[in-house]
């Protein structure tokens, strides 16, 4: 009997030790999984855009200068994706042809992309940050963030609260042509784009880069010229967007919704939000990542 009494504290002590080790082991396992997730690049949103629709509302023609040969492909977005990796987001834009006629260090100087992000229906703006694209955004989806992708170290992030003359945030922001020769990758620190990326909607506008054009868009007129697109109007109500990220058949009606006679610009709609394919486990890991970062734990 005395032996049994003597053994009880030992059993209790062993059980407590096993419990402590199990809790610690589980915590270490979860932290390890969170680190692994944080360090792996993962896609948040991806969407293809039709090939051969670098014609705005369906009528635009390339300028006539030989720099635009073969008069197609330069501004034909075919794939857009957003991924998260450690403390950055990567925005990838795939084109069949990327040239660098002005020798920018980014590896491209012909194409321009403007990405507007909407994440809250109740705040933001429905006009473009500066005049140039000649469109209005869907009033149900005003934008909060704007990433302007241009060459010569001018790629920057703007917030809807910025005033028109603001320089934009470019700390840690990079735009580079990738080794595949057709993908532009824009890297933005997460701290410049706060909020939940699984709620984001995107307006992705592709134009031709013109240092002297309105908001750096090359303009579209009625008739194509050496440095100007044709197939639009000579007013400022036709969009200067050559390709818009949209499902098949949608771009033509959206960009064609302007009415120059009534002075009404086109109203365009965003794509997204991404369908979250995250499991409860992955959501929990994201919370652990935030917690570890707050605790200044190196991950
Ligand atoms: Ca396209
Ligand atoms: Ca398109």
**Order of H and E elements:** HEEEEEEEEEEEHEH
What spatial form do the alpha-carbon principal axes imply?
A: elongated
Rg? 25 Å
Q: Please identify the structural class as seen in this structure.
A: alpha+beta
In spatial order, strands of the major sheet run 1-2-3-9-8
CATH class of the largest domain: Mainly Beta
Which compounds are bound in this model?
Answer: calcium ion
Q: Mean of residue pLDDT? A: 94
Number of distinct helices: 3
Helical percentage = 10-25%
Care to describe what's here?
With 299 residues, the protein is an alpha+beta fold. It folds into two domains: 55 residues; 226 residues, Immunoglobulin-like (Sandwich). The chain is 19% helix and 22% strand. It contains three helices and twelve strands; from the N terminus they run H-E-E-E-E-E-E-E-E-E-E-E-H-E-H. Strands 1-2-3-9-8 form a five-stranded antiparallel β-sheet, with no helix packed on it. A five-stranded antiparallel β-sheet has the order 7-6-4-10-11, with no helix packed on it. Helix 1 crosses helix 3. The chain starts with a helix and ends in a 5-residue tail after the last helix. The mean pLDDT is 94. The site of one calcium ion has 8 residues, from strand 11.
């Amino acid at each position: 009997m005395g032996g049994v009494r003597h053994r009880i504290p030992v059993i209790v002590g062993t059980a407590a030790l096993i419990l402590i080790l199990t809790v610690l082991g589980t915590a270490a396992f979860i932290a390890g999984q969170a680190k692994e997730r944080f360090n792996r690049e993962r896609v948040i949103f991806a969407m293809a855009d039709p090939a051969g629709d670098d014609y705005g509302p369906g009528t635009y023609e390339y300028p006539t200068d030989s720099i635009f040969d073969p008069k197609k492909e330069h501004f034909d977005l075919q794939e857009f994706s957003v991924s998260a990796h450690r403390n950055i987001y990567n925005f990838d834009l795939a084109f069949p042809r990327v040239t660098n006629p002005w020798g920018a260090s980014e590896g491209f100087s012909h194409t321009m992309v403007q990405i507007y992000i909407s994440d809250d229906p109740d705040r933001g703006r429905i006009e473009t940050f500066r005049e140039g694209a000649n469109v209005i955004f869907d009033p149900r989806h005003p934008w909060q963030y704007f990433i302007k992708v241009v060459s010569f170290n001018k790629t920057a992030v703007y917030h809807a609260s910025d005033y028109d003359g603001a320089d934009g945030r470019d700390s840690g922001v990079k735009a580079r042509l990738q080794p595949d020769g057709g993908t532009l990758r824009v890297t933005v620190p997460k701290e410049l784009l706060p909020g939940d990326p699984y709620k984001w909607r995107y307006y992705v506008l592709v134009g031709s880069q013109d240092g002297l054009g309105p908001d750096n868009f090359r303009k579209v007129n009625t008739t194509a010229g050496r440095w100007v697109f044709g197939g639009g109007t000579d007013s400022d109500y036709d969009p200067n967007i050559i390709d818009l990220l949209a499902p098949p058949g949608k771009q033509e009606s959206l960009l064609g919704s302007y009415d120059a006679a009534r002075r009404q610009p086109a109203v365009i709609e965003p794509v997204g939000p991404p369908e979250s394919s995250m499991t409860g486990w992955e959501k929990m890991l994201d919370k652990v990542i935030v917690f570890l970062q707050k605790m200044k734990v190196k991950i």
